[in-house]
Design brief:
Elements lengths: L2 H19 L1 E2 L8 E9 L5 E3 L5 E3 L4 E3 L1 E4 L4 E4 L3 E5 L6 E6 L7 E6 L5 E5 L6 E5 L8 E5 L9 E8 L4 H8 L34
Parallel strand pairs: 1-5
Antiparallel strand pairs: 2-6, 2-14, 3-4, 3-5, 4-13, 6-7, 7-8, 8-9, 10-11, 12-13, 12-14
């Protein structure tokens, strides 16, 4: 092999390696529901995973790849780490291999954007996208709706992207999955109800 052809082969190998590394894909069996995630709502970004396992919307990290164990209600990432949201922060992250969190995940039927999305704990799959400070371009940490301080956060759904055929079966079998009409995705906070009007004291002369 000549020097030029060897150099060309190395370039092709490097390009293939870079493409494969762009997404952390879990090892999967033929009947597993595996997917990537993207937010639907005011924030529309791909879910990426940081080097410490935090899941974010946008940012310089690799696109996350996940698999759902429908029977156990668990999600794992491409490294086999369990992904969940736990108190007190309720941030969505993937922890050490074998870690099991408190959440029960499921694949919903068609949700916002017309695609199945990730739901948890038998509730509509609403997540909170909270801006990361000093992030350029903007990125968002992901939390469950149980986050105590949601100031500045935006409600989003996490839609399945590039999912395996098994995910359709998982969604069809999920009788409790919320429909798109039951998932409220809005950037505006709920309006404050008006204060009740005080009733005037009744005039004794009219009684």
């Amino acid at each position: 092999m000549t020097t030029s052809s060897l150099f060309h082969a190395l370039l092709l190998l490097a390009a293939a390696g870079a493409s494969a590394a762009a997404t952390l894909r879990p090892r999967q069996g033929g009947d597993e529901c595996c997917f990537q995630l993207a937010s639907v709502g005011t924030v529309n970004e791909t879910v990426v995973e940081s080097h410490v396992g935090s899941l974010l919307l946008g940012g310089p990290f690799q696109q996350g790849g996940f698999c759902l164990d429908g029977a156990a209600g668990t999600v794992r990432d491409g490294l086999g780490h369990g992904c969940f949201m736990r108190a007190p922060a309720y941030q969505f992250a993937c922890w050490a291999a074998g870690a099991v969190g408190p959440n029960a995940f499921a694949v919903s039927r068609a949700g916002p954007g017309g695609r199945p999305h990730l739901a948890y704990d038998g509730r509509p799959g609403v997540f909170l996208a909270c801006p990361v400070r000093s992030s350029a371009p903007p990125s968002y940490d992901i939390y469950s709706a149980d986050k105590p301080d949601a100031a500045g956060c935006l409600a989003v759904a996490l839609a399945l992207v590039d999912e395996t055929p098994a995910c359709a079966a998982a969604a069809a079998s999920n009788a409790e999955a919320p429909s798109s009409s039951s998932v409220a995705i809005s950037a505006r906070p709920a309006p404050t109800p008006p204060l009740p009007r005080r009733r005037r004291a009744q005039d004794p002369a009219r009684t």
